[in-house]
Design goal:
The structure holds two protein chains of two kinds. Chain A is of the alpha+beta class. Helices cover 43% and strands 16% of the residues of chain A. A seven-stranded antiparallel beta sheet of chain A has the order 14-13-10-11-12-15-16, with helices on both faces. A five-stranded parallel beta sheet of chain A has the order 3-2-1-4-5, with helices on both faces. In chain A, strands 6-9-7-8 form a four-stranded antiparallel beta sheet, covered by helices on one side. Chain A is globular and about 95 Å long. Chain A starts with a strand and ends in a 9-residue tail after the last strand. Chain B is an alpha/beta fold. In chain B, 34% of the residues lie in helices and 20% in strands. Chain B is built from 20 helices and 24 strands. In chain B, helix 1 crosses helix 11 and helix 14 runs parallel beside helix 18 (528-536). The longest helix of chain B is centred in the middle third of the chain and has 17 residues, at 245-261. The chains are: A alpha+beta, B alpha/beta.
């Protein structure tokens, strides 16, 4: 075997974005490292993957079976790696196999066999397999025609979920709470499915949604890369959910129960490479159901890679070549092998980014059909800090947990905003908690786990303390303690200034003077007499002048000014974040190419 | 890390700021490394190559905001920050970072502010004798009406300092002007609203690389759709298929003047509109744009590495590049840039030449040996209730490229790659607005000649019949069954050409038709220029084997 064909994922659409350029580029590098020639076909020019440096031959041609066949005929690759180009790449590989193109040109498929992929993607085959290995799947009905749909209208427990088979990111699915709705959504799904196949299943709305990223090689070695918990419970597409890694609300028993199930499933499927397993867990019992398996590189695997430092696409490509986990180096540490399960000593929060700032008329409710165009990820020592950091990085109007729109709502309106998932629900939840609604009430409405809600309550209390800081001004110690608590919880200096109400113009003037004043500080501190202090000041006439000008413009006795200078003094002294490493191993081994995340109030790990 | 330089990423992917910016950031990092620098990258998007663990010398997985960036610079003692590759996210921080004492590499924050300050920019254009559509920045509804009276309707109304054409509208009357003024004002409170004469012409754009003196124009991209469609949503062809040589020379000349006046060090994007051979500048972005990866691939100019060298203070002339337009050389003596020993590691992959605007006018370069067409890709299937027709506000989420030896073949590839094609059976349905009826006749003729069966709604049906084109009439939705929606539902539509009435908010009916197409997987073309382009490539739809299928660098072979 010399030459390997890789099919890219084509243009960026919702449900299939930059993650496939990331995974594809990494995998091409990984294959070439082992001495193979890589032929690539992808119609998306805005990718690193399609640079002539990434592959040996790059075809910027349409991703159709016809053009793929022409590429195969011209290049005569020995093998095809189908699991890197998302659903587009996988569907094309399946079409090429079905049309006999692969056989005709003697192209073998690498990695997870197509039969296993089919088992994972075809609902009926998947359910059959789950039944065989005794893993629970929610009751469901496979529907292939309008007549089938008509026949089940009276049998199905409502609400139920409609999922079309073989589509991108759950296109055409939805939740039906009545016969009429099932009829409409079901027919639409049948039209959109490549195979005219939909599944109708029991709704698990409100259950916890958990994902496991797992990896298996041809010898049957399996590891868990990480698990992830959706902040939004079942009923919201995982691409539209706020996701936390590792899971925060599972007990040890639950964690291992689901891990065991995930590993059992990829063994039974015979996956060779990375795989994503989605599970639903009843928050009130140990019941769980297996929801879905993605037998390929996916958006979730990209997130898991970044969250742990474990390069899933790279390792999957090596596994596809027949290597085993114990033979593959961990590129981040360069001292360990890929069979080590990553260890996380931090918390990761992902928040999706939706296009509703552009599509004001669009339907903002979130269901089983993904609507986000992108996402941000934040890493920090605690859920609270990572959550705040992610919000700050979204580049939306809201920089913290406040939202003017929800603040202006009456309780009835707010109640429905908390109940119905939308792109802005996290702020509605925050507003409800700010109004003193109990955690249990908000949980009943939103089904978001009380653990997350309590964390939000903590942040909102700090937010209130910062807003009310002016009233504490007479007690400097308490002011500093409040600022310190907020800062250590993850509020950054800009947000602290905003919440405490520091006048931005004062902040600008103060910050301009500060370095000058600081230059005089050592001499002042060393002065043992009044005379010495005066001399020290006289020796820094510029600092002296700037300082005087500042306090001539701003009245130091004014409460707002006093508050401003206190907050700014605190931030100057304390608010320099230090950085920790993501090294896949929680510091257990030396690391060659770690990356960094900011923390507040801890020691720094940047090499000097 | 004290010798390190920071490259700012572009944050989460959104409409208007996509993967293209990540592409540029990654290449900037690599270019800095090739120059012997340590490159630090800050970004918080987990989906990208830029946040892969081994892309930069050090990755900081942090939001691209002022305080987070300042912290990284403070802790790493980095020597400077590159802001021009991370889209609007990064460029918006340049002034604040600079005020906090952080050196900005490349085009200075002052120049960036000048390019984005409308008043200053207008003065600059008039000093440089570069025409722009008449109009100006206003701060009140009354003032907006006055400007509209002066320049005449239609006018283009948009907020200043926003991304991707948000809240931008073409306004045809005083009543709508009030409404859209308010929208534009709300989109960016406190900033002026721009009201300009709407020039209904061909649009084109360039991305240029400059060191402040020498300015290289790698290529001109001509938009397929006329003005009024956001540049991110229009199809674009390189090299231009219909712009005259004089028009192209003007564009290159304006680009060189602007780059010098703004002291651009690095990349800049300029958008033009052309009417009656007159070139107007409509927008300047002093940063890498979304067309950089595509243009880099089809011109062979390593645009980001070159721009990175320019922003680090190197001279383009020392790197083997001169001022002017880079063209595929087939008659002019070629001068491969890599022959210059000083730029070995930039490694241009193909032969080209630059010509100054004057020489370009005189030269007689033959037809290009390659054509590349970019087409937008939308995600309307996922977004219910979103109006899918094209306008000044960007709606696409991605793009594809079609490359071939002829314009028509490249068009064909771009169209099918973006999902526009004919279903095997059914009618091609035309339902177009009055302004488009004339063009619709030409389109219908070609479709008919290619053997497609046509259907049309009342008005279009009559227009076609009176031009002698046989077609089946279908009812609009209110006029009884079977109507257009039924036809779509029964799978009897192979392709839909449906253009919205301009100047009016879309009617419920037109939107229902377009949504029905989207939800049943029928391609729906909503712009008459796109439809015309489609008919140019019908030969290839009939016989796709006529199109080439080559690794893209091979399309360039035989060009030198």
């Amino acid at each position: 075997m010399e030459k390997i064909l890789v099919i890219g994922s084509g243009p960026i659409v919702i449900g299939q974005a930059a993650e496939f350029d990331y995974a594809g580029t990494q995998a091409c590098k990984s294959l070439r490292e082992e001495g193979y020639k890589v032929v690539l076909i992808n119609s998306n020019p805005a990718t690193i993957m399609t640079d002539t440096e990434t592959a040996d031959a790059v075809y910027l041609e349409p991703l159709t079976p016809e053009f793929c066949e022409r590429v195969i005929a011209r290049e005569r690759p020995d093998a095809l790696l189908p699991t890197l180009g998302g659903q587009t790449g996988l569907n094309l590989a399946t079409q090429l196999a079905n049309r006999g193109v692969l056989e005709k040109y003697n192209v073998r498929l690498l990695g997870t066999p197509l039969s296993a992929i089919q088992k994972a993607e075809d609902r009926e085959e998947f359910r059959q397999l789950m039944r065989e290995i005794k893993e629970p799947v929610p009751e469901s009905w496979i529907i292939q025609s309008t007549e089938d749909l008509q026949a089940i209208l009276d049998q199905v427990p409502y609400p139920c979920i409609v999922r079309p088979a073989y589509t991108l990111g759950g296109t055409g699915g939805g939740i039906a709470s009545s016969k009429e709705e099932l009829w409409t959504i079901g027919n639409k799904g049948l039209a959109l499915s490549m195979r005219s196949q939909i599944m109708v299943e029991r709704s698990l709305l409100g259950w916890k949604e958990i994902e496991y990223e797992v990896m298996r090689d041809r010898m049957g070695n399996c590891i868990t890369i990480c698990n992830m918990e959706n902040f939004d419970p079942m009923g919201v597409h995982t691409g539209d959910s706020i996701v936390v890694a590792p899971s925060q609300t599972l007990s040890d028993i639950e964690y291992h129960m689901l891990r065991t199930a995930s590993l059992k499933i990829i063994r039974a499927l015979g996956i060779e490479g990375g795989c994503n397993v989605q599970l639903a867990v009843n928050p009130e019992s140990f019941d769980y159901y297996v929801i879905e398996v993605n037998p390929r590189v996916s958006r979730s695997s990209a997130l898991a890679s970044k969250a742990t430092g474990y390069p899933i696409a790279r390792v999957s490509a090596k596994i596809a070549l027949g290597m085993t986990l114990d033979e593959i180096d961990n590129q981040v540490t360069k001292t360990t092998k890929a069979c080590f399960e990553p260890a996380l000593d931090y918390c990761v929060v992902k928040i999706p980014r939706w296009p509703f700032d552009k599509f004001a008329s669009g339907d903002r409710t979130l269901f089983t059909q993904m609507k986000a165009t992108g996402e941000v990820m934040a890493i920090d020592r605690s859920f609270e800090a990572a959550f705040l950091k992610a919000i700050r990085g979204l580049e939306v109007k809201q920089k913290d947990l406040r939202h003017a729109g929800f603040a202006a709502m009456n309780d009835a309106e707010l109640k429905s905003a908390v109940r119905i998932p939308t792109d802005e629900r996290l702020w509605a939840i925050a507003e409800a908690l700010r109004r003193g609604w109990s955690v249990m009430d908000v949980n009943r409405l939103s089904r978001v786990d009380p653990w997350f809600l309590r964390k939000m309550v903590g942040l909102i209390e700090l937010e209130g303390a910062l807003i009310g800081l002016k009233d504490l001004l007479w007690d400097r110690e308490q002011v500093w303690q409040t600022l310190e608590r907020a800062y250590l919880a993850g509020y950054d200096s800009q947000t602290i200034q905003m919440l405490t109400g520091v006048d931005p113009e004062f902040a600008k003037d103060w910050s301009a003077v500060q370095p000058l004043v600081e230059s005089a500080q050592p001499a002042l501190a060393a002065a043992t007499s009044l005379q010495a202090a005066e001399n020290a000041l006289a020796a820094h006439p510029e600092a002296n002048r700037a300082n005087q000008a500042l306090w001539a413009k701003w009245d130091p006795l004014d409460l707002d000014v006093a508050l401003g200078s206190t907050v700014l003094a605190f931030l100057t002294q304390y608010a320099h974040a230090s950085y920790k490493m993501v090294d896949t191993c929680a510091g257990e081994f030396e690391s060659a190419t770690p990356y960094y995340y900011a923390v507040h109030g801890e020691s720094d790990e940047i090499p000097t | 890390m004290s010798d390190a330089l920071v490259v700012l990423g572009s944050g989460p992917i959104r409409i208007g700021q996509g993967i293209e910016f990540d592409y540029s950031c990654v290449h900037c990092v690599w270019a800095l490394q090739a120059m012997g620098h340590r490159a630090i990258l800050i970004n918080n998007n987990p989906e990208t190559v830029s946040t892969d663990f081994d892309t930069a010398d050090a990755l900081f997985f942090e939001p691209v905001t002022l305080s987070d960036v300042l912290n990284v610079v403070h802790q790493t003692k980095a020597k400077g920050v590159v802001v021009q590759f991370g889209g609007q996210t990064a460029i918006n921080l340049s002034e604040k970072l600079s005020n906090a004492g952080v050196p900005i590499l490349g085009t200075s924050p002052e120049s960036i502010a000048r390019a984005e300050d409308r008043d200053f920019f207008e003065q600059l254009l008039s000093q440089l004798e570069i025409p722009k559509p008449p109009g100006r920045a206003v701060r009140s509804r009354e003032e907006a009406q006055i400007v509209a009276q002066e320049v005449g309707f239609p006018v283009l109304v948009r907020p200043s300092f926003v991304l991707g054409g948000r809240a931008m509208e073409i306004v045809y009357d005083a009543e709508n002007l009030d409404i859209f003024y308010k929208q534009a004002e709300d989109a960016n409170p406190g900033q002026p609203v721009l009201v300009d004469k709407y020039v209904m012409g061909l649009e084109a754009e360039v991305d240029v690389i400059s060191d402040g003196e020498t300015t290289l124009v790698p290529g001109i991209m001509e938009h397929v759709e006329r003005a009024g469609v956001h540049s991110g949503d229009s199809m674009a062809v390189y090299p231009p298929s219909s712009l005259s040589r004089k028009v192209q020379a003007d564009m290159v000349s304006y680009a060189c003047r602007l780059a010098r006046a703004l002291e651009i060090k690095g990349l800049m994007n300029i958008q033009f509109v052309v009417e009656d051979e007159q070139v107007y500048v409509i927008e300047v972005n002093p940063r890498a744009s979304r067309t950089v990866p595509y243009l880099s691939k089809v011109t062979g100019i390593p645009m980001v590495p070159l721009a990175t060298r320019a922003l680090m203070g190197q001279q383009l002339s020392d790197l083997g590049y001169g001022s002017g337009l880079w063209c595929l050389a087939d008659q002019m003596p070629s001068r491969p840039a890599w022959e210059n020993p000083s730029n070995k590691d930039i490694g241009p992959s193909r032969v080209g030449i630059e010509v100054s605007p004057e020489r370009y006018l005189e030269s007689s370069i033959a037809q290009s040996a390659i054509y590349a067409v970019k087409a937008p890709v939308f995600s309307f299937q996922k977004l219910q209730r979103v109006e899918p027709s094209l306008g000044p506000e960007m709606k696409s989420t991605g793009e594809v490229l079609g490359i071939d030896r002829t314009y028509e073949a490249a068009l064909y590839k771009a169209l099918i790659a973006s999902g526009i094609g004919f279903k095997p059976t059914g009618y091609v349905v035309l339902t177009v607005n009055n302004q488009d009826k004339l063009k619709a006749v030409g389109i219908a003729q070609k479709l008919k000649a290619a053997g497609y069966s046509l259907a049309a709604t009342t008005g279009t049906h009559e227009a076609l019949m009176s031009a002698g084109i046989e077609n089946t009439m279908v009812h609009k939705i209110q006029s009884g069954t079977p109507n257009l929606i039924d036809l779509i539902g029964r799978g009897e539509v192979a392709l839909m050409i449906n253009t919205p009435d301009s100047g009016h908010t879309t009617t419920q009916e037109a939107m229902m038709i377009r949504r029905a197409c989207i939800e049943t997987g029928v391609a729906c073309v909503t712009n008459i220029d796109t439809a015309e382009a489609l008919t140019r490539s019908l030969d290839y739809f009939k016989d796709p084997e006529r199109a080439q299928c080559l690794p893209y660098h091979e399309y360039f072979q035989g060009v030198s």
